[in-house]
C-alpha cells in the first residue's frame, strides 16, 4: 500500500500543473474505479475537499455510467473496455457532496501508467445547456407543426444569431441535417445581412434593431453545406420567448425567379432598342397572359407607367380577344392556340388606365424563349382610321342619298316641267294653225320660233326623263331575248327606217340578263343613230353578238354612216354632247348618254370604233343566261 | 261630222280635269270632230261625284254616257273617283276612260284593277292629242253601244 501511495504521489505531481490549468473538472480513475487524482475545479463542482475524494470510488460522484466503462468483466474483454473508455460527449449525472445531482458531460481519455491503464475524465457542468435544450424542445413541439407546414425554409434565431429551431425545408434547402444546424450561427447559412439585423450595436439602438428584424422581401444570399451560394428572399418576424426576442425567418429560394429576371433583363436589353424604335405600342405576353415586356408607346397609349403593367394580366389593357388566343383549352389544342397567336390585323378594343376604350389593331407573332412561347403584340391605335372609315361610310351614304335625291329630282322636275310645257306647245301650235296669215308676217315668225322652241324643249325633257328613268325606274335583270328586243326596237323605228330606205340586218341573237324595256331603248337609240347620221346612199346597219368568255356576249351595231373622229370617242357618251349643227341633224345630245347609262346598269361598258367616212361600230357586253340542263 | 245619241239626244260627256288648259284643249279637240257633244267639266273628284249623284248645284245634271277621268286631281283623286263609281250599282255601267299624263305602269295596272274601261295617256304633241280625241269620239261615242240612260232627267 505504501509503495502504491508513493507511486501515486509521483504520478500526481507529474500531472498536477496540467490538470489545474484545465477549465473543466478533471478526475483520474484507475481500473478499480478509484479516484487517483483530481483538480480544483473537481473539488468545487462536486463540493468535496480533495482528500475526501482521493482513493474513493468514482461512483460516489458519478453514480452511473462511468465506473461500468472501466472494468473488463465476464461480458467483455479488457480491450473492449478500454475502447469504451475513450469517448466524447458522454452525458451523465454528477452528484455533489450534499446529494444534489446535476447534468454533466464527460470526455474520457486513457492514460498509461505503471499501475496499468488509468482513465482521465474531463467533466463539464451542462446544467445551463440542458435547460435551454429542454426549453427549446418544448417550443419546438409547439411550433413544429406550424413550421413543417410552411412551404418555405423556416429558421428561428436568437439574439446571439444562433439557430434554435428549423424545419425540414431548411434542412433540404441548405443541405444540412437538423442537428448540424441547431445551436449553430446563422451566419453559416446566410453570411451577410441577417445576423447584423439581430443585434443592437454601437450604431443603433435595440429598438432600431428590433424594427429591422421585421421585414418583407429582403433579398440576400444563402450558402449551402457544400459551399455553393443561392439567392434567397427573407421574411422576418419577431417572436417573444422566455429567452428574449427570437426572430423567425422564412427563407425562399428565388433562384428560379432570379434566373427568369436575369433572362428577362438580358432579353429586355436585347429587344429594348428594337421595341422602343417601333412606331406601335409593343407588348410581350407569356402563356399565362402576363405582360413581360413593353415599350414606351405602350405606356403612352394605355396611360400606365411601365412598372404598373409588368407582370399584370394583359386582360387589363385588352379585355377581350387577346388572352383567349394564348391558351390551349378544352376547345382547342396547343397547336391551334399557337396558330391563333399569329395574326395580322385583328381588330379589338383597348382599355386605358382611366377606363376609356379605344379601337386597336393587333399584329401577333410568336417568340421562342426559355420560358416557352411568348407572344409579341404590336398594337396600333386605330381611332383615327376608324373615324376616317366611319366618315367615309357616312360620306358614301350621304352621296348615295344625294345622288338618289338628284335622280328623283331630275325625274320629278322633268316630269312636272312637261305639263306646263305641253300647254305652251299646244297653244302656240293652236295659235299657229288658226292665225297663220291672219296677223302680220312678224307675228307669224314669232309664233314659229315659239312653236319650234317649245317642241325642242319637249324632246329635251323627254330625253332627260328617259335618262333619269334608267336609274330610278329600272326593272330587275331577267332572262330576255335580245333578238325580240331588237325587233321591238325596229318596230318603233319603222318610220325612220322606211323614210331612209335603210337595210337593217342581224345575226341570231342570244338570250341575256336584261331589263327588257331598257334593252329595247338601247337598240332603238343605237340603230336610230346609225340610220340618222348618214351620208347620201342607202344606210346599212348590222347587229351581231359573239361570246366573250365569262358567260358574256359582246354585241356590235355596225353602220356604213358618217363615222366619228376618234378624238370624240369619249365625248359622244356625255350628256348634251353633239357633234353636228342643229340644221344638219336634230337631237338633244342625250341618246348615247342614255345608252351608256343602260349598259353600265347592266354591268358592262360601251365603246365605239370608227373612222370618219368609214362607218361606226358601237360595242357593248351583256351577261348571258346559263344554259339550263 | 255630226253624231247624236241613239234617241237623237246630244251625247253627254263628263270630263274630270283640273287643268283649265287641258279642259279647253279637250273642248277644242271635240269641237273639231263632233258638235253635238255636251262636255260637262268637274274640276276635282268631289265635284265629279256630286255631279254624278246630282247633289247641290248639280241637282239637274244629266247622267253622262261616258266619263273622261284624269288621275291626279285635287281633293279626291281619280283612283278614288274610279273606285267609288265602280262600287256604285247605278253608276258602274258608265264607261270610264282614263285620260292622264301618267305613263306609270303602277297607274295603268291599278286603273284596270279598279275596272277602268280603257287607259289613255295624253300625247305631248297637239296633233297627236287631237287625233286621240278623234279616236275617242269615233270609238266610244260612235261605234260603242252604251246602255239606255234610264236615269236621265
List keywords for this structure.
A: 629 residues, alpha+beta, Beta-Lactamase, 5 domains, five-stranded antiparallel sheet, 22 strands, B: 153 residues, alpha/beta, Rossmann fold, five-stranded parallel sheet, globular
Give an overview in words:
The complex is a heterodimer of chains A (629) and B (153). The mean pLDDT of chain A is 81. Chain A is rod-shaped, with a radius of gyration of 58 Å. With 629 residues, chain A is an alpha+beta fold. Chain A has five domains: 2-125, PAS domain (Beta-Lactamase, 2-Layer Sandwich), CATH 3.30.450; 130-253, 2-Layer Sandwich (Beta-Lactamase); 276-381, 2-Layer Sandwich (Beta-Lactamase); 387-469, Helix Hairpins (Orthogonal Bundle), CATH 1.10.287; 474-623, 2-Layer Sandwich (Heat Shock Protein 90), CATH 3.30.565.10. Chain A has a five-stranded antiparallel sheet with strand order 2-1-5-4-3, sandwiched between helices. A five-stranded antiparallel sheet of chain A has the order 7-6-10-9-8, with helices on both faces. Chain B is an alpha/beta fold and 153 residues long. Chain B has a single domain (16-142), classed as 3-Layer(aba) Sandwich (Rossmann fold). In chain B, 38% of the residues lie in helices and 16% in strands. The longest helix of chain B is centred in the last third of the chain and has 18 residues, at 126-143. The model of chain B has no long low-confidence stretch (mean pLDDT 87). Chain A binds chain B through residues 418-419, 421-423, 425-427, 429-430, 455, 458, 462, and chain B through 19, 21-22, 25, 28, 101, 122, 124-127, 129.
